[in-house]
Amino acid sequence: MNGYFTLLILSLLSTGILSFEDYVQYYEFVAVQPSIIDTSDRHISAYLNFNAHGRNFRLHMTTNQHLFSTDFKLKLHKENGVHRHVAMDTRHIVIGHIIGEDNSIVHGKIKDNYFEGIIHSQKETYHVEHIKNHFKEHRDFKNGQNVVVYKTSDVNFTHPTTCGISDKLLRIQESAKHIRYSSSFSNRLRKRQSDGALNTCSMHVYADYKFYSQVGDNDEATTLEIMALHITESNIIYRDTTFQNGDQSLTNYGLAITAADVIASNSPSENPLYGNFQVDELLQNFAAFDFNSVCLGHLFTYSDFSGTIGLAYVADPDGGRAGGICQERTQTFGGELNLNTGLTTLITFGRRLPQAVSVITTAHEIGHNFGSPHDPEGTCAPGGSQGNYIMYATATDGTLPNNKQFSSCSRDIMGKTIVNNGDCFILEPFFQVCGNGIVEGTEECDCGSNSTCKSNDACCRIGECLLEPNATCSPNKYTCCTSDCTPSAVGTVCSRGDECLVESTCKYPLLPSSTFLSLSLF
Fold this sequence. Notes:
Pfam families: Reprolysin_5. The protein contains 9 helices and 26 strands. The longest helix is centred in the middle third of the chain and has 20 residues, at about 220-240. The chain is of the alpha+beta class. α5 crosses α7 (about 355-370). It is about 20% helix and about 25% strand. It has a single domain (about 5-420), classed as Collagenase (Catalytic Domain) (3-Layer(aba) Sandwich). It has a 9-stranded mixed beta sheet with strand order 7-6-17-14-18-22-19-1-13, sandwiched between helices.
Protein backbone atom coordinates (compact mmCIF):
# COMPACT_ATOMS: atom_id res chain seq x y z
CA MET A 1 0.00 0.00 0.00
CA ASN A 2 1.23 3.47 -0.87
CA GLY A 3 2.92 5.07 2.15
CA TYR A 4 0.95 8.29 1.73
CA PHE A 5 -2.26 6.35 2.31
CA THR A 6 -1.01 5.06 5.61
CA LEU A 7 -2.66 6.18 8.80
CA LEU A 8 0.20 6.25 11.26
CA ILE A 9 -0.22 5.36 14.89
CA LEU A 10 2.59 5.94 17.35
CA SER A 11 2.56 2.98 19.71
CA LEU A 12 4.52 1.68 22.65
CA LEU A 13 4.91 -2.04 22.94
CA SER A 14 5.49 -2.85 26.56
CA THR A 15 3.67 -4.54 29.37
CA GLY A 16 3.04 -3.85 33.03
CA ILE A 17 2.50 -0.65 34.99
CA LEU A 18 5.27 1.90 34.52
CA SER A 19 6.38 4.46 37.11
CA PHE A 20 7.97 7.88 36.65
CA GLU A 21 11.31 6.32 37.59
CA ASP A 22 10.96 3.93 34.66
CA TYR A 23 10.98 6.93 32.35
CA VAL A 24 13.30 9.38 34.12
CA GLN A 25 16.64 8.23 35.51
CA TYR A 26 17.35 11.31 37.63
CA TYR A 27 15.20 14.21 38.82
CA GLU A 28 15.16 16.78 41.59
CA PHE A 29 12.39 18.27 43.72
CA VAL A 30 12.68 22.06 43.75
CA ALA A 31 10.87 25.02 45.26
CA VAL A 32 10.16 27.69 42.64
CA GLN A 33 8.35 30.96 43.26
CA PRO A 34 8.31 33.50 40.42
CA SER A 35 8.29 37.23 41.11
CA ILE A 36 5.79 39.12 38.99
CA ILE A 37 7.35 42.54 38.50
CA ASP A 38 4.83 44.10 36.17
CA THR A 39 1.24 43.47 35.23
CA SER A 40 -1.46 45.08 33.14
CA ASP A 41 -4.76 44.10 31.58
CA ARG A 42 -2.93 42.45 28.67
CA HIS A 43 0.37 41.10 29.96
CA ILE A 44 2.62 40.21 32.85
CA SER A 45 6.39 40.27 33.23
CA ALA A 46 8.11 37.98 35.72
CA TYR A 47 11.48 36.78 36.96
CA LEU A 48 12.34 33.40 38.43
CA ASN A 49 15.58 32.41 40.17
CA PHE A 50 16.26 28.86 41.36
CA ASN A 51 18.97 26.21 41.52
CA ALA A 52 18.72 22.70 40.10
CA HIS A 53 20.97 20.11 38.49
CA GLY A 54 24.14 21.87 39.61
CA ARG A 55 23.39 25.22 38.01
CA ASN A 56 21.54 28.47 38.63
CA PHE A 57 18.53 29.46 36.53
CA ARG A 58 17.64 33.14 36.18
CA LEU A 59 14.61 33.43 33.93
CA HIS A 60 12.76 36.40 32.50
CA MET A 61 9.31 35.71 31.05
CA THR A 62 6.44 37.74 29.62
CA THR A 63 3.01 36.89 28.25
CA ASN A 64 3.20 34.82 25.07
CA GLN A 65 1.81 37.30 22.53
CA HIS A 66 2.08 34.98 19.50
CA LEU A 67 0.18 31.89 20.68
CA PHE A 68 -3.49 32.91 20.71
CA SER A 69 -5.37 34.66 17.94
CA THR A 70 -7.02 37.99 18.74
CA ASP A 71 -10.47 36.37 18.55
CA PHE A 72 -9.55 33.33 20.69
CA LYS A 73 -12.47 31.79 22.58
CA LEU A 74 -12.81 28.88 24.99
CA LYS A 75 -16.10 26.97 25.11
CA LEU A 76 -16.91 25.01 28.26
CA HIS A 77 -19.31 22.06 28.00
CA LYS A 78 -21.09 21.61 31.36
CA GLU A 79 -23.92 19.48 32.73
CA ASN A 80 -27.52 19.79 31.55
CA GLY A 81 -26.58 21.03 28.10
CA VAL A 82 -24.98 24.23 29.37
CA HIS A 83 -22.37 25.31 26.85
CA ARG A 84 -20.85 28.70 27.46
CA HIS A 85 -17.92 30.73 26.25
CA VAL A 86 -15.51 31.57 29.04
CA ALA A 87 -13.35 34.68 29.12
CA MET A 88 -9.90 33.25 29.76
CA ASP A 89 -7.01 35.13 31.32
CA THR A 90 -4.05 33.96 29.21
CA ARG A 91 -1.56 36.50 30.57
CA HIS A 92 0.12 33.87 32.75
CA ILE A 93 0.93 31.67 29.71
CA VAL A 94 4.45 32.98 29.21
CA ILE A 95 7.55 32.80 27.07
CA GLY A 96 11.03 34.15 27.70
CA HIS A 97 14.69 33.29 28.08
CA ILE A 98 17.52 32.48 30.46
CA ILE A 99 19.11 35.78 31.45
CA GLY A 100 22.61 36.05 30.00
CA GLU A 101 22.28 32.97 27.79
CA ASP A 102 21.90 33.58 24.07
CA ASN A 103 19.59 31.33 22.01
CA SER A 104 17.73 30.13 25.08
CA ILE A 105 13.94 29.78 25.17
CA VAL A 106 11.68 29.33 28.18
CA HIS A 107 7.92 28.83 28.06
CA GLY A 108 5.13 27.58 30.27
CA LYS A 109 2.79 29.06 32.85
CA ILE A 110 3.17 31.19 35.97
CA LYS A 111 0.30 30.62 38.34
CA ASP A 112 -0.40 30.03 42.01
CA ASN A 113 3.17 31.03 42.92
CA TYR A 114 4.92 28.39 40.82
CA PHE A 115 6.27 27.92 37.30
CA GLU A 116 5.63 24.89 35.13
CA GLY A 117 7.13 24.56 31.68
CA ILE A 118 10.17 23.90 29.51
CA ILE A 119 13.62 25.52 29.62
CA HIS A 120 15.79 25.25 26.50
CA SER A 121 19.38 26.19 27.28
CA GLN A 122 22.24 26.11 24.78
CA LYS A 123 23.23 22.58 25.74
CA GLU A 124 20.25 20.96 27.45
CA THR A 125 16.48 21.01 27.80
CA TYR A 126 14.97 20.98 31.28
CA HIS A 127 11.37 20.09 32.07
CA VAL A 128 9.65 21.60 35.08
CA GLU A 129 6.46 19.82 36.14
CA HIS A 130 4.28 20.13 39.21
CA ILE A 131 5.01 17.37 41.69
CA LYS A 132 1.41 16.15 41.67
CA ASN A 133 1.69 15.21 37.98
CA HIS A 134 3.71 12.13 38.86
CA PHE A 135 3.83 11.84 42.65
CA LYS A 136 0.27 11.79 43.95
CA GLU A 137 1.14 9.59 46.91
CA HIS A 138 2.03 11.27 50.19
CA ARG A 139 5.59 12.48 50.53
CA ASP A 140 7.26 14.80 52.98
CA PHE A 141 8.25 17.59 50.61
CA LYS A 142 10.46 20.10 52.37
CA ASN A 143 11.03 23.84 52.07
CA GLY A 144 8.10 24.46 49.78
CA GLN A 145 9.19 22.03 47.06
CA ASN A 146 6.47 22.20 44.43
CA VAL A 147 7.97 21.01 41.13
CA VAL A 148 10.07 18.16 39.77
CA VAL A 149 12.88 19.20 37.41
CA TYR A 150 14.56 16.78 35.01
CA LYS A 151 16.74 16.93 31.92
CA THR A 152 15.79 15.35 28.61
CA SER A 153 19.16 13.59 28.67
CA ASP A 154 17.96 11.76 31.79
CA VAL A 155 14.77 10.51 30.13
CA ASN A 156 14.94 6.79 29.46
CA PHE A 157 12.22 6.11 26.93
CA THR A 158 13.52 3.01 25.19
CA HIS A 159 10.35 0.94 24.96
CA PRO A 160 10.01 -0.55 21.45
CA THR A 161 7.47 1.16 19.23
CA THR A 162 5.61 0.39 16.05
CA CYS A 163 3.43 2.07 13.44
CA GLY A 164 0.01 0.49 13.27
CA ILE A 165 -2.42 0.67 10.38
CA SER A 166 -6.18 0.96 10.86
CA ASP A 167 -7.98 -0.44 7.82
CA LYS A 168 -11.17 1.33 8.83
CA LEU A 169 -9.61 4.79 8.94
CA LEU A 170 -7.64 4.11 5.77
CA ARG A 171 -10.88 3.40 3.96
CA ILE A 172 -12.36 6.63 5.33
CA GLN A 173 -9.47 8.67 3.92
CA GLU A 174 -9.51 6.88 0.60
CA SER A 175 -13.29 7.21 0.21
CA ALA A 176 -12.94 11.01 0.29
CA LYS A 177 -9.73 11.31 -1.67
CA HIS A 178 -11.07 13.47 -4.52
CA ILE A 179 -13.16 15.93 -2.50
CA ARG A 180 -10.37 18.44 -1.78
CA TYR A 181 -10.54 19.86 -5.30
CA SER A 182 -13.72 21.88 -4.79
CA SER A 183 -14.79 25.37 -5.79
CA SER A 184 -14.37 26.59 -2.21
CA PHE A 185 -10.83 25.21 -2.15
CA SER A 186 -9.99 27.11 -5.33
CA ASN A 187 -11.40 30.31 -3.85
CA ARG A 188 -9.42 29.85 -0.64
CA LEU A 189 -6.24 29.17 -2.62
CA ARG A 190 -6.68 32.34 -4.67
CA LYS A 191 -7.24 34.31 -1.45
CA ARG A 192 -4.06 32.88 0.06
CA GLN A 193 -2.00 33.76 -3.00
CA SER A 194 -3.24 37.35 -2.93
CA ASP A 195 -2.83 37.90 0.81
CA GLY A 196 0.95 37.45 0.98
CA ALA A 197 2.89 35.77 3.77
CA LEU A 198 0.26 33.71 5.57
CA ASN A 199 2.46 31.42 7.59
CA THR A 200 0.39 30.10 10.48
CA CYS A 201 -1.76 26.99 10.82
CA SER A 202 -4.70 27.89 13.06
CA MET A 203 -5.63 25.22 15.59
CA HIS A 204 -8.78 24.34 17.49
CA VAL A 205 -7.67 22.36 20.54
CA TYR A 206 -10.10 20.10 22.38
CA ALA A 207 -9.89 18.49 25.81
CA ASP A 208 -12.16 15.54 26.54
CA TYR A 209 -13.52 14.88 30.01
CA LYS A 210 -10.74 12.45 30.93
CA PHE A 211 -8.12 15.07 30.15
CA TYR A 212 -10.08 17.81 31.93
CA SER A 213 -10.56 15.75 35.10
CA GLN A 214 -7.27 13.83 35.31
CA VAL A 215 -4.77 16.28 33.79
CA GLY A 216 -6.56 19.59 34.18
CA ASP A 217 -7.70 18.93 37.77
CA ASN A 218 -11.30 19.80 36.85
CA ASP A 219 -10.25 23.34 36.03
CA GLU A 220 -10.63 24.81 32.56
CA ALA A 221 -7.72 27.24 33.00
CA THR A 222 -5.29 24.47 33.97
CA THR A 223 -6.59 22.36 31.11
CA LEU A 224 -5.94 25.15 28.59
CA GLU A 225 -2.48 25.83 30.01
CA ILE A 226 -1.33 22.25 29.46
CA MET A 227 -2.70 22.16 25.93
CA ALA A 228 -1.03 25.52 25.26
CA LEU A 229 2.34 24.20 26.46
CA HIS A 230 2.18 21.34 23.95
CA ILE A 231 1.23 23.60 21.05
CA THR A 232 3.88 26.17 22.02
CA GLU A 233 6.61 23.53 22.00
CA SER A 234 5.47 22.34 18.56
CA ASN A 235 5.33 25.94 17.35
CA ILE A 236 8.92 26.55 18.45
CA ILE A 237 10.07 23.45 16.56
CA TYR A 238 8.11 24.26 13.41
CA ARG A 239 9.12 27.93 13.21
CA ASP A 240 12.75 26.95 13.63
CA THR A 241 12.49 24.54 10.65
CA THR A 242 13.22 25.42 7.03
CA PHE A 243 10.80 23.39 4.92
CA GLN A 244 11.57 22.74 1.26
CA ASN A 245 9.41 22.70 -1.84
CA GLY A 246 11.95 21.92 -4.52
CA ASP A 247 14.28 24.94 -4.62
CA GLN A 248 11.85 27.02 -2.58
CA SER A 249 12.71 27.45 1.11
CA LEU A 250 9.82 28.04 3.51
CA THR A 251 10.71 29.63 6.84
CA ASN A 252 8.82 30.76 9.95
CA TYR A 253 5.82 28.50 9.41
CA GLY A 254 4.11 27.59 12.65
CA LEU A 255 0.97 27.21 14.73
CA ALA A 256 -1.49 29.32 16.73
CA ILE A 257 -4.55 28.53 18.84
CA THR A 258 -7.74 30.19 17.65
CA ALA A 259 -10.29 28.21 19.68
CA ALA A 260 -10.51 25.70 22.52
CA ASP A 261 -13.26 23.42 23.80
CA VAL A 262 -13.22 21.72 27.20
CA ILE A 263 -15.70 18.96 28.01
CA ALA A 264 -16.40 19.33 31.72
CA SER A 265 -19.24 16.80 31.89
CA ASN A 266 -19.06 13.03 31.89
CA SER A 267 -22.76 12.59 31.26
CA PRO A 268 -23.35 10.39 28.18
CA SER A 269 -25.92 12.88 26.91
CA GLU A 270 -23.59 15.87 27.28
CA ASN A 271 -20.21 14.31 26.44
CA PRO A 272 -19.96 13.46 22.73
CA LEU A 273 -16.75 11.55 23.41
CA TYR A 274 -18.19 9.55 26.31
CA GLY A 275 -17.13 5.92 26.53
CA ASN A 276 -14.11 3.68 26.17
CA PHE A 277 -13.00 3.66 22.55
CA GLN A 278 -10.22 2.13 20.55
CA VAL A 279 -7.90 4.89 19.40
CA ASP A 280 -9.12 4.87 15.80
CA GLU A 281 -12.74 5.02 16.98
CA LEU A 282 -11.98 8.02 19.20
CA LEU A 283 -10.29 9.87 16.35
CA GLN A 284 -13.21 9.14 14.02
CA ASN A 285 -15.69 10.40 16.61
CA PHE A 286 -13.58 13.51 17.09
CA ALA A 287 -13.41 14.05 13.33
CA ALA A 288 -17.21 14.22 13.31
CA PHE A 289 -16.90 17.65 14.97
CA ASP A 290 -16.77 20.67 12.67
CA PHE A 291 -13.25 22.04 12.11
CA ASN A 292 -13.93 23.74 8.77
CA SER A 293 -12.92 27.16 10.09
CA VAL A 294 -9.41 26.12 11.14
CA CYS A 295 -6.31 24.50 9.73
CA LEU A 296 -6.24 21.65 12.27
CA GLY A 297 -8.25 20.23 15.14
CA HIS A 298 -6.33 18.39 17.86
CA LEU A 299 -7.76 16.36 20.73
CA PHE A 300 -6.01 15.95 24.07
CA THR A 301 -7.17 12.95 26.04
CA TYR A 302 -6.20 10.83 29.02
CA SER A 303 -7.37 7.55 27.52
CA ASP A 304 -5.10 4.57 27.99
CA PHE A 305 -4.75 2.70 24.70
CA SER A 306 -2.21 0.21 26.10
CA GLY A 307 0.67 1.61 24.13
CA THR A 308 -0.70 4.00 21.53
CA ILE A 309 0.01 7.62 22.48
CA GLY A 310 -0.83 9.52 19.31
CA LEU A 311 -2.84 9.27 16.11
CA ALA A 312 -3.44 11.54 13.11
CA TYR A 313 -4.64 11.62 9.53
CA VAL A 314 -1.74 11.96 7.11
CA ALA A 315 -1.93 14.66 4.42
CA ASP A 316 -1.15 13.90 0.80
CA PRO A 317 1.59 16.32 -0.36
CA ASP A 318 0.06 16.30 -3.86
CA GLY A 319 -3.29 17.48 -2.50
CA GLY A 320 -5.22 14.71 -4.20
CA ARG A 321 -6.54 12.89 -1.15
CA ALA A 322 -8.48 14.04 1.86
CA GLY A 323 -6.72 14.54 5.17
CA GLY A 324 -4.29 16.85 6.95
CA ILE A 325 -3.91 20.62 7.04
CA CYS A 326 -6.76 22.79 5.75
CA GLN A 327 -8.89 19.81 4.77
CA GLU A 328 -12.53 20.84 4.52
CA ARG A 329 -15.34 18.70 5.85
CA THR A 330 -15.91 15.79 3.47
CA GLN A 331 -18.45 13.04 2.91
CA THR A 332 -16.96 9.60 3.56
CA PHE A 333 -18.46 6.16 3.99
CA GLY A 334 -18.14 6.88 7.73
CA GLY A 335 -20.28 10.02 7.42
CA GLU A 336 -19.34 13.68 7.16
CA LEU A 337 -15.92 14.10 8.78
CA ASN A 338 -13.15 16.64 9.20
CA LEU A 339 -9.95 14.74 8.45
CA ASN A 340 -7.73 17.69 9.44
CA THR A 341 -7.49 16.14 12.88
CA GLY A 342 -5.24 14.24 15.28
CA LEU A 343 -4.93 13.38 18.95
CA THR A 344 -2.45 13.02 21.81
CA THR A 345 -2.93 11.06 25.01
CA LEU A 346 -0.87 11.66 28.14
CA ILE A 347 -1.20 8.18 29.63
CA THR A 348 -0.02 4.72 28.70
CA PHE A 349 -0.04 1.48 30.68
CA GLY A 350 -1.56 3.19 33.69
CA ARG A 351 0.99 5.97 34.12
CA ARG A 352 1.10 9.59 33.03
CA LEU A 353 3.75 10.27 30.40
CA PRO A 354 6.59 12.65 31.20
CA GLN A 355 6.14 16.02 29.58
CA ALA A 356 9.33 15.43 27.58
CA VAL A 357 7.61 12.58 25.72
CA SER A 358 4.11 14.01 25.30
CA VAL A 359 5.24 17.31 23.73
CA ILE A 360 7.26 15.46 21.08
CA THR A 361 4.28 13.18 20.46
CA THR A 362 2.12 16.22 19.65
CA ALA A 363 4.76 17.61 17.28
CA HIS A 364 4.98 14.16 15.66
CA GLU A 365 1.23 13.85 15.10
CA ILE A 366 0.97 17.37 13.68
CA GLY A 367 3.82 16.35 11.38
CA HIS A 368 1.53 13.66 9.95
CA ASN A 369 -1.14 16.33 9.40
CA PHE A 370 1.52 18.27 7.48
CA GLY A 371 2.06 15.30 5.18
CA SER A 372 5.05 13.49 6.62
CA PRO A 373 4.94 9.71 6.99
CA HIS A 374 7.46 8.04 9.25
CA ASP A 375 11.08 8.51 8.23
CA PRO A 376 12.39 5.71 6.00
CA GLU A 377 15.53 3.84 6.92
CA GLY A 378 18.77 5.38 5.64
CA THR A 379 19.98 8.95 5.79
CA CYS A 380 16.67 10.15 7.25
CA ALA A 381 16.94 7.63 10.11
CA PRO A 382 20.64 7.69 11.02
CA GLY A 383 20.35 6.66 14.67
CA GLY A 384 23.65 6.54 16.53
CA SER A 385 24.90 9.32 18.78
CA GLN A 386 22.86 11.98 16.93
CA GLY A 387 19.63 10.01 17.20
CA ASN A 388 16.65 9.78 14.89
CA TYR A 389 14.35 12.60 13.86
CA ILE A 390 10.86 13.59 15.03
CA MET A 391 9.06 11.49 12.42
CA TYR A 392 10.93 8.25 13.09
CA ALA A 393 8.54 5.38 13.74
CA THR A 394 9.90 4.86 17.26
CA ALA A 395 8.86 7.39 19.88
CA THR A 396 11.65 9.80 20.76
CA ASP A 397 12.19 11.60 24.04
CA GLY A 398 14.23 14.56 22.84
CA THR A 399 17.49 13.43 24.43
CA LEU A 400 19.58 13.39 21.22
CA PRO A 401 20.25 16.29 18.82
CA ASN A 402 18.08 15.00 15.98
CA ASN A 403 15.10 14.16 18.21
CA LYS A 404 13.64 17.67 17.99
CA GLN A 405 14.29 18.23 14.31
CA PHE A 406 12.65 17.10 11.11
CA SER A 407 14.67 15.04 8.67
CA SER A 408 15.26 16.20 5.10
CA CYS A 409 12.69 13.60 4.00
CA SER A 410 10.06 15.16 6.27
CA ARG A 411 11.00 18.74 5.40
CA ASP A 412 10.64 18.08 1.67
CA ILE A 413 7.22 16.43 1.99
CA MET A 414 5.93 18.96 4.54
CA GLY A 415 7.11 21.88 2.39
CA LYS A 416 5.23 20.53 -0.60
CA THR A 417 2.15 20.00 1.55
CA ILE A 418 2.30 23.59 2.85
CA VAL A 419 2.45 24.98 -0.69
CA ASN A 420 -0.19 22.70 -2.19
CA ASN A 421 -2.60 22.27 0.73
CA GLY A 422 -2.01 25.21 3.07
CA ASP A 423 -4.62 27.47 1.54
CA CYS A 424 -6.20 28.28 4.92
CA PHE A 425 -3.07 29.57 6.69
CA ILE A 426 -3.39 32.87 8.56
CA LEU A 427 -1.06 35.66 9.64
CA GLU A 428 0.94 34.95 12.76
CA PRO A 429 -1.05 36.39 15.69
CA PHE A 430 0.43 39.23 17.64
CA PHE A 431 -0.94 41.15 20.59
CA GLN A 432 0.24 44.73 20.88
CA VAL A 433 0.84 45.29 24.59
CA CYS A 434 1.02 48.78 26.02
CA GLY A 435 3.20 48.83 29.10
CA ASN A 436 5.83 46.19 28.32
CA GLY A 437 8.51 48.73 27.43
CA ILE A 438 8.66 47.67 23.77
CA VAL A 439 7.31 49.90 21.01
CA GLU A 440 5.02 47.67 18.93
CA GLY A 441 2.59 48.06 16.07
CA THR A 442 0.79 51.41 16.14
CA GLU A 443 2.28 52.54 19.47
CA GLU A 444 3.92 55.97 19.39
CA CYS A 445 5.97 55.04 22.46
CA ASP A 446 6.02 52.55 25.35
CA CYS A 447 7.54 53.61 28.63
CA GLY A 448 6.82 50.45 30.59
CA SER A 449 4.79 50.12 33.76
CA ASN A 450 3.00 52.96 35.51
CA SER A 451 5.60 52.99 38.27
CA THR A 452 8.59 53.30 35.95
CA CYS A 453 7.13 55.19 32.98
CA LYS A 454 8.31 58.73 33.61
CA SER A 455 11.82 57.65 34.62
CA ASN A 456 12.09 55.69 31.38
CA ASP A 457 10.53 58.14 28.93
CA ALA A 458 9.19 61.58 29.85
CA CYS A 459 7.75 61.94 26.33
CA CYS A 460 5.21 59.13 26.72
CA ARG A 461 1.77 59.17 28.36
CA ILE A 462 1.43 56.67 31.18
CA GLY A 463 -0.68 53.65 30.24
CA GLU A 464 -1.62 54.97 26.77
CA CYS A 465 1.54 54.49 24.64
CA LEU A 466 0.87 57.87 23.02
CA LEU A 467 3.16 60.88 22.96
CA GLU A 468 2.57 63.70 25.39
CA PRO A 469 0.72 66.65 23.78
CA ASN A 470 3.90 68.75 23.43
CA ALA A 471 6.17 65.85 22.41
CA THR A 472 7.25 65.34 18.81
CA CYS A 473 9.01 62.00 19.30
CA SER A 474 10.20 59.45 21.86
CA PRO A 475 13.89 58.56 22.36
CA ASN A 476 12.81 55.00 23.15
CA LYS A 477 11.51 54.67 19.59
CA TYR A 478 13.89 56.92 17.65
CA THR A 479 17.62 57.19 18.12
CA CYS A 480 17.56 60.73 16.78
CA CYS A 481 15.18 62.08 19.41
CA THR A 482 16.39 64.13 22.34
CA SER A 483 15.36 63.78 25.96
CA ASP A 484 13.20 66.89 25.59
CA CYS A 485 11.08 65.02 23.01
CA THR A 486 12.26 66.89 19.91
CA PRO A 487 14.24 65.60 16.89
CA SER A 488 18.01 65.79 17.06
CA ALA A 489 19.80 68.16 14.70
CA VAL A 490 20.92 66.74 11.36
CA GLY A 491 24.53 65.56 11.71
CA THR A 492 24.25 64.58 15.36
CA VAL A 493 26.14 61.34 16.13
CA CYS A 494 23.52 58.96 17.42
CA SER A 495 25.53 55.73 17.55
CA ARG A 496 29.27 55.13 17.86
CA GLY A 497 30.79 52.58 15.54
CA ASP A 498 32.29 49.21 16.43
CA GLU A 499 33.25 46.03 14.58
CA CYS A 500 29.64 45.45 13.52
CA LEU A 501 28.19 48.94 13.23
CA VAL A 502 29.31 52.01 11.33
CA GLU A 503 29.08 55.31 13.14
CA SER A 504 25.60 56.73 12.59
CA THR A 505 24.58 60.33 12.31
CA CYS A 506 21.14 61.86 11.99
CA LYS A 507 20.95 62.47 8.26
CA TYR A 508 17.21 62.81 8.66
CA PRO A 509 15.43 64.13 11.73
CA LEU A 510 14.38 60.66 12.96
CA LEU A 511 16.59 57.59 12.52
CA PRO A 512 15.24 54.44 14.18
CA SER A 513 18.46 52.42 14.26
CA SER A 514 22.12 52.15 13.28
CA THR A 515 23.30 50.74 9.98
CA PHE A 516 25.02 47.37 9.85
CA LEU A 517 28.26 46.96 7.92
CA SER A 518 28.16 44.82 4.79
CA LEU A 519 30.50 41.92 5.44
CA SER A 520 31.97 39.81 2.66
CA LEU A 521 32.50 36.31 4.02
CA PHE A 522 33.79 34.64 0.83
